Amino acid sequence: MSLGFYVDLSSCIGCRTCQVACKDRRDIQVAGPRLRRVDSFECGTYPDVAMFHLNTSCNHCESPACVANCPTGAMYKDDDGTVQHDDEACIGCQTCVNSCPYSAPQFIEEDKIVQKCDTCRALREAGHDPVCVEACPMRAIEFGDMDELRAAHPNAVSELPCTEAAATTGPNILWEPTRGAQMEAFEPVTL
């Protein structure tokens, strides 16, 4: 079994409520690292232009580069298929940060360790969804078994022109792409 996320990019309005909820749960400063990220892109060329918001976190990959390269075993695959982080084993070397093609592990300067999305493991064990799922006002984010998510969303994809190729690490992420998210010409934009 592999667990992961599905995000409907056509429903994501870029409000960043999921990002704020994640920061709040982990007590991360506003200007600090983003374990759940919403980035905006403008794409295409006039007159065929579009914009979209890419909503992502750790993709809990099948072959995670962070786990393969962590010298202490602080990054590891859990029995449920998620990639977890042992804060006690972390030495802050940032090898995982430099290894991940999705920029998921984030160095927490004040703690001198790395943190990442843990799919709100403690909340899930208590019967709740991850905070990003529960906080999304548009209900654009789902979390669950990847086979079930693929069956429920057959048009969703695991890579976009603005992301790493899925074959690199086998990410457990599905995006319901918008027209803009599928365009080859894209630039990040700050809103």
Automatic annotation (TrEMBL):
Task: Please list the residue ranges annotated as the 4Fe-4S ferredoxin-type domain.
Answer: 3-33, 50-80, 81-110
Biological source species: Adlercreutzia caecimuris
Query: At the top level of its lineage, which domain of life is listed?
Result: Bacteria
- This chain's protein is named 4Fe-4S dicluster domain-containing protein
What are the record keywords, sorted? 4Fe-4S, Electron transport, Iron, Iron-sulfur, Metal-binding, Repeat, Transport
* MF terms in GO: 4 iron, 4 sulfur cluster binding; metal ion binding
